[in-house]
């Protein structure tokens, strides 16, 4: 029978293979079946030899092999299976081939563990970096995990205790660095089954109690992906930006840039989900695809973030998550840090951190969803709109998300083609890209590229929020252009730059200009209130005796239109509820939208039609003349 293992062929039948420090780490942390790389012949049986009974003290050990990691009271047979000595001179079969290959610890010298290798009945080796904490109790958890990986263990309490002792006192000579996230570690980039680059001269392994659930699988070919998915994306701005995000995400940490998201909003059946599918196919896929749902992040945000660290997360159907949870989830994903938690004794637990980009889709926009929140009283903070960029999924060409159909008869036909292709070709583009990126390490050049992009697209006098968003689009453009330079995507040079500039322009236009978002949101709130309640809550200057319920002030015809004399109480609680009313008022004075007093302050003392003199805010007609964002 052929014997399959993770990294190198057996030199003999005397010992399990050892993984190389550089290159593949097998599937440590996941217990996944490892793809074969070499084969060797073996006639060894994995179970006890024929006729051997547990407790038969007369059994003679054949081809006993010396293994330095084995503690006293254990022996390794030539086939790799392990014997233990329950009584002096009595050697019983304990388990099928198993090896403790390395002692693991994290960068702080804590979270110690064991890198365990197990061979199943198909002669396939599986790796698991087991935390030593698994040995603290009765051991049911780690035994179940090893059995699921294919270990065969002798029945009975003595065998269970012997395995527990074996794993506890084993003394492996090798060391490995354990981590809990994928992505960058030193100068290397970790996938679940592979490390690309040199990891500071150490072997890195993913260590966890539970199997790692991920979608970083590969299928098809890179050339197949280029032809079936990359080529139809050319000229389709939404597809180019989505795909470029997958290549941009690993650039965040080396460049010291913040994470964040892009949300494609729009009606059903326009191809929103397709944008996530093509972006996810860069990274991986499989039976369930690469994406996860927003609902999955509600209670499992740290798990989702850890799996997608230094990469792209694709989140589908924003409508599935509650509005109250959405704001916190979006903030944590973009900010790169989980909530702080306390230990039982009052100490602070270590806080999980990450760096990622995320692509989101849904029929409802981020701002509209957040306005459903009772906690925020319907207010959308400017920082939330900067962390997650709300963009229309419809490209405006009559084909849903597509600007053109790439030769297909309809948008539906193109979407069906892309969906079918992403189920065949996935995973290879990102790995090929990371190999070139780590080999060349062009991060200084990329940083200059982003700075140039920001300078080119940012309007003069734009506030910091606009510059942050411009930098987001700049890193997205950089990811796409680097993938083009490496031959990963079949696009012409400048394709990603053009798409990123277009989408930044659409975002800026929808925002209402390059002024701070708090200002634009406040002006929009005032316009909305006057448009909705101008006739019902403001008394006409010429009709002071008209009965008006819940009066907000007076309206007066002036040159250019109506001016509104707003009572201070209504200004704060009605027109600008949830906004910084003082900040908005000062800005309106600067823009000529609000009348100032002799000292330049926004409140003026006016004699009103009822004969009383009081302070009011006088909103001038100019606020509507500037309502198109051209102020």
How many separate helices? Answer: 19
The CATH topology of the largest domain is given as: Rossmann fold
Helix content: 25-40%
Per DSSP E runs of 2 or more residues, the count of β-strands stands at 23
Structural class by sheet pairing and helices: alpha/beta
Extract low-pLDDT stretches: 1-47, 49-65, 627-631
Whole-number count of domains: 3
Text of the CATH class of the largest domain: Alpha Beta
Q: How are the strands of the biggest sheet laid out side by side? A: 8-7-6-9-13
User: What portion of the residues fall into strands of 2 or more residues?
Assistant: 15-25%
In whole angstroms, how far apart are the ends?
Answer: 77 Å
CATH architecture of the largest domain: 3-Layer(aba) Sandwich
Q: Main beta sheet: strand number and arrangement? A: 5 strands, mixed
Assign an overall shape. Answer: elongated
Task: Give me the Rg, rounded.
Answer: 32 Å
Q: For the residues shown, what is the average pLDDT?
A: 85
């Amino acid at each position: 029978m052929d014997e399959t293992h993770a990294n190198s062929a057996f030199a003999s039948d005397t010992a399990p293979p050892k993984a190389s420090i550089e290159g593949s780490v097998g599937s440590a942390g996941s217990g996944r079946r490892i793809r074969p790389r070499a084969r060797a012949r073996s006639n060894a049986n994995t179970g006890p030899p024929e006729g051997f009974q547990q407790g038969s003290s007369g059994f003679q050990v054949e081809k006993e092999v010396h293994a330095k990691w084995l503690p006293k009271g254990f022996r390794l047979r030539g086939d790799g299976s392990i014997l233990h000595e329950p009584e002096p001179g009595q050697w019983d079969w304990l388990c099928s081939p198993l090896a403790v290959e390395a002692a693991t610890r994290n960068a702080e010298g804590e979270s110690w563990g064991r890198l365990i290798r197990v061979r199943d009945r198909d002669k396939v080796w599986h790796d698991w970096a087991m935390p030593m904490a698994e040995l603290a109790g009765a051991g049911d958890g780690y035994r179940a995990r090893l059995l699921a990986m294919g270990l065969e263990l002798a029945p009975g309490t003595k065998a269970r205790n012997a395995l527990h002792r074996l794993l506890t006192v084993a003394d492996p000579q090798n060391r490995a660095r354990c981590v809990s996230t994928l992505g960058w570690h030193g100068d290397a980039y970790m996938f679940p089954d592979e490390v690309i680059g040199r990891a500071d001269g150490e072997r890195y392994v993913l260590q966890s109690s539970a199997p790692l659930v991920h979608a970083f699988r590969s299928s098809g070919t890179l050339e197949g992906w280029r032809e079936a998915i990359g080529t139809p994306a050319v000229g389709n701005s939404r597809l180019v930006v989505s795909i470029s995000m997958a290549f941009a995400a690993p650039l965040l940490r080396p460049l010291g840039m913040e994470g964040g998201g892009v949300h494609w909003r729009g009606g059903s059946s326009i191809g929103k989900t397709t944008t996530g599918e093509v972006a996810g196919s860069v990274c991986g896929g499989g039976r369930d695809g690469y994406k996860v749902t927003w609902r999955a992040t509600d209670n499992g945000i740290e798990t989702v973030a850890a799996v997608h660290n230094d990469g792209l997360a694709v989140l589908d159907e924003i409508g599935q998550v509650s509005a109250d949870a959405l704001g916190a989830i979006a903030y944590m994903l973009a900010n790169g840090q989980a909530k702080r938690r306390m230990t039982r004794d009052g100490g602070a637990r270590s806080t999980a951190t990450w760096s990622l980009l995320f692509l989101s889709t849904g029929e409802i926009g981020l701002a509209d969803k957040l306005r459903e929140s009772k906690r925020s009283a319907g207010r959308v903070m400017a920082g939330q709109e900067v962390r997650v960029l709300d963009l229309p999924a419809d490209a405006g060409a009559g084909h849903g998300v597509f600007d053109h159909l790439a030769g297909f008869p309809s948008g539906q036909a193109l979407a069906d083609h892309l969906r079918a292709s992403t189920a065949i070709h996935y995973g290879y583009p990102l790995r090929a890209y990371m190999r070139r990126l780590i080999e060349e390490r062009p991060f200084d050049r990329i940083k200059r590229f982003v700075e140039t992009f920001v300078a080119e697209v940012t309007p003069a006098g734009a506030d910091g929020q606009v510059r942050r968003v411009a930098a987001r689009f700049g890193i997205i453009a950089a990811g796409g252009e680097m993938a083009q330079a490496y031959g990963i995507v079949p696009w012409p040079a400048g394709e990603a730059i053009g798409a990123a500039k277009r989408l930044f322009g659409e975002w800026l236009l929808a925002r209402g200009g390059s002024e701070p978002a708090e200002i634009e949101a406040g002006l929009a709130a005032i316009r909305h209130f006057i448009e909705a309640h101008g006739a019902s809550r403001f008394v006409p200057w010429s009709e002071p005796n008209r009965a008006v319920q819940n009066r907000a002030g007076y309206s007066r015809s002036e040159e250019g239109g109506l001016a509104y004399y707003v009572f201070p109480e209504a200004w704060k609680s009605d027109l600008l509820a949830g906004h910084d009313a003082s900040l908005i008022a000062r800005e309106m004075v600067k823009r000529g939208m609000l009348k100032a007093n002799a000292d330049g302050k926004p409140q003026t003392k006016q004699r009103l039609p009822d004969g009383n003199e009081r302070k009011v805010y006088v909103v001038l007609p100019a606020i509507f003349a500037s309502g198109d964002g051209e102020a």
